[in-house]
């Protein structure tokens, strides 16, 4: 079974994907894993590669291609990433959501940052990503038609999600 898990920062995609992977006994690959692999292939650290990726949409496109290829090459796999559901063949496409303030609080705790700083960073990041996804891929992030299930992670603890 191929499962994609997507969602905005702070919704718990990485946590849920990891737990599901452990419980189902199938591998999990995140878009972040693919990004780190691509950086290593170029012998760059993550920060250097991130700066390059900001100016080069081909990197985002390659991440999506690689996740789609992984889905095609595996019978059982969990793919975690914001756009995984749009590019990978999957049996189940899951979107995790949570209220803005809940997400901000989770990120604030995880990254030991001031909540107001996190709120502003989220707003900037989400505007930027929505624009990039629209320009690069023609994807409207507010269109949820691609997903089979939408789960509000505010309603459950990570183990229950």
Molecular structure report:
- With 161 residues, this protein is an alpha/beta fold.
- It has one domain: P-loop containing nucleotide triphosphate hydrolases (Rossmann fold, 3-Layer(aba) Sandwich), CATH 3.40.50.
- Helices cover 55% and strands 14% of the residues.
- It has helices spanning 13-24, 31-41, 46-55, 57-73, 84-87, 100-111, 115-137, and strands at 2-7, 28-30, 77-80, 92-97, 149-152.
- Helix 6 (100-111) crosses helix 7.
Q: Which labels suit this protein?
A:
alpha/beta; Rossmann fold
Summarize the structure.
The protein has helices at residues 13-24, 31-41, 46-55, 57-73, 84-87, 100-111, 115-137; strands at 2-7, 28-30, 77-80, 92-97, 149-152.
- The CATH fourth-level homologous superfamily: P-loop containing nucleotide triphosphate hydrolases
Query: Element order, helices and strands?
Result: EHEHHHEHEHHE
Tally the structural domains. Answer: 1
Structural class by SSE content: alpha/beta
Strand content: 5-15%
CATH architecture: 3-Layer(aba) Sandwich
CATH topology description: Rossmann fold
**What is Rg?**
15 Å
Low-confidence stretches: none
Most strands sheet: 5 strands, parallel
Number of strands: 5
Round the mean pLDDT to the nearest integer and report it. 90
Number of helices: 7
